Amino acid sequence: MQIMIKKLRLQRNILLSLVVINMATNSVLALKLYNVDTVTRLVPTIEQTQEISSSYVNDAALRARTEQIIYLLFSMKKENVDAVTSALLKQVDNAVYDTFKKKIDLLSEDIKAKNYRYVFTDIQSYEFDNLNFTVKAKGYLETYLAGKQLNSGIKIYQISFFNRGGVLTLKSFEEVSNEANN
After folding, report:
1. Does residue 182 carry a pLDDT above 60?
2. I need a labelling partner for 6 at 20 to 30 A (CA). Which of 21, 94, 132, 162 fits?
3. How far, in Å, CA of 20 to CA of 66, rounded?
């Protein structure tokens, strides 16, 4: 009987040791997989692959996000100012939300009061900074008041993003002075 009990204890101890070793190796594997830098590839078209990792974003991904932000911001007019403002604020990172909200609220109130709109068209060039998640877009800015074009000129805008685990959220949108680029 004692030999049987010793065999059962030995089997239990071996099984318990294997379970502990299995849990330890799974924990080490999970920690290793958690710390690996992941690269997300989004393929909206065959010729452009979007690559986003924690420290790098390729030109195609930055361009797509920049075009989304530019479209939203410059589609704002008196009739849709509230909807566009809401959609634009959903793109903004929490770290700069309050500051950006104040700026966009001023713009939207001004557009409502004066009934003007901006159109940023014919983008001539993009300048990408893939490691700092920044894009400079150069194109024509047209200003309309009550449906009549007031002026048109070349403008350069710099759009910066935060990279939050592969999700690009808006950090800033600002005009770059033409003198700085000449």
Report:
1. no
2. 21
3. 50
